[in-house]
Amino acid sequence: MPAVELTNISKAYGATQAVRNVSLTVEPGELFGLIGPDGAGKTTLFRILATLLLADAGTATVAKHDVVREFRAIRNVVGYMPGRFSLYQDLTVQENLEFFAAVFRTTVRENYELVRDIYEQLVPFKDRRAGALSGGMKQKLALCCALIHKPELLLLDEPTTGVDAVSRQEFWHMLSTLKERGITIVVSTPYMDEAALCERVALLQTGQVLRVDTPAALRESYPWPLYAVRAARMHPLLQDLRAYPAAHSCYAFGETAHLSLAQPDAAAEAHLKAYLTAKGHHDVSVAPVPATIEDTFMDLLQTHHSAPVS
Ligand SMILES: Nc1ncnc2c1ncn2[C@@H]1O[C@H](COP(=O)(O)OP(=O)(O)OP(=O)(O)O)[C@@H](O)[C@H]1O
To answer: 16 CB less than 6 Å from ligand 1?
Structure first.
């Protein structure tokens, strides 16, 4: 029996269809990612799973309980870390923890073992108001609060948005430790490097699931020959690459342009260099690169946009 099962879930806010016919399962003990840009429907899905919002259509179960009929049972086994405003800003670190423990009729001491590693990092700040913590510390406290009643399943909505790179890394390390303890984790992120740390991910766009797979399978499924191209001037480079007759797609990727070709071309590097030099570009470099999850996502978005919405 899956830890989470969504079947044809849909939800609209007035005229905005936030989630369309989403079906997916998360296995017990899995670290599962919901990946998508702002507005993709991630928060809406979390709120439905956390029994805080009713879907318009479809069914969902969490830890074998139906989200509508058995919402009370779900609240005891789920730890939910919303994207924003989950902490009481005017309470101290210690008071926030005690408050969340009391809501679940437990104590920090009773569940200390599970939160110890995270709690120890918070001890130097235990008398500081939550509102005065750094982003990384807020995030650790929110995770601690979500864990205080020993949930079977953690729902983490963009836990690393607005957090510095070191804290993000530490956070993902904490998630792998919690996973080793058997906790199922569903986490959303707009960051593709974090998607790669999940066991499986669902790629979401405008409320629809474009694909569910492992990061490796997503990378390997990329169908086009792909090249990283650099030149002295990025903006005209992108324009000229998009006009390249053999181009399938082209977009900025960090400090390079990623160009995919519609057909394999054994001499692509030489052809591209000649083309760009003739267009007046300097310091041109072209190298074949393996696809990342982001490349696969971009490709799925393009296919999705050119197909009618069902
Ligand atoms: N209470 C609401 N009233 C009206 N529209 C809403 C409401 N909540 C969300 N939406 C809209 O529903 C869509 C999905 O929003 P949702 O918050 O679920 O996406 P998300 O992927 O979590 O993005 P974000 O990171 O921006 O929250 C968006 O178009 C959003 O503007």
So the answer is: yes
Domains of the chain, by residue range, sit at 4-219, 223-290
Q: Which atom of ligand 1 is nearest to the CA of 14?
A: 4
Q: Which letter, b or e, does each residue of 147-183 get, where b requires 16 or more Cβ atoms within 10 Å of its Cβ? A: bbbbbbbbbbbbbbbebeeebbebbbebbeebbeeeb
- pLDDT (tens digit per residue) in 61-96: 999 999 999 998 998 899 999 887 678 889 999 999
Residue with CA closest to ligand 1 atom 6: 13
Residue 88's nearest CA partner among 107, 75, 102 is: 102
Q: What is the CATH number of domain 223-290?
A: 3.30.70
207 Cα nearest atom in ligand 1: 14
What is the ipTM for the molecules in this complex? Answer: 0.95
CATH T-level assignment (fold) for domain 4-219: Rossmann fold (3.40.50)
Residue 44 Cα to ligand 1 midpoint, Å, equals: 7
* Ligand 1 neighbour 43 (Cβ under 6 A): yes
CA-nearest residue, atom 2 of ligand 1: 13
* pTM for this entry: 0.90
Q: How far is the centre of ligand 1, averaged over its atoms, from the C-alpha of 161 (Å)?
A: 16
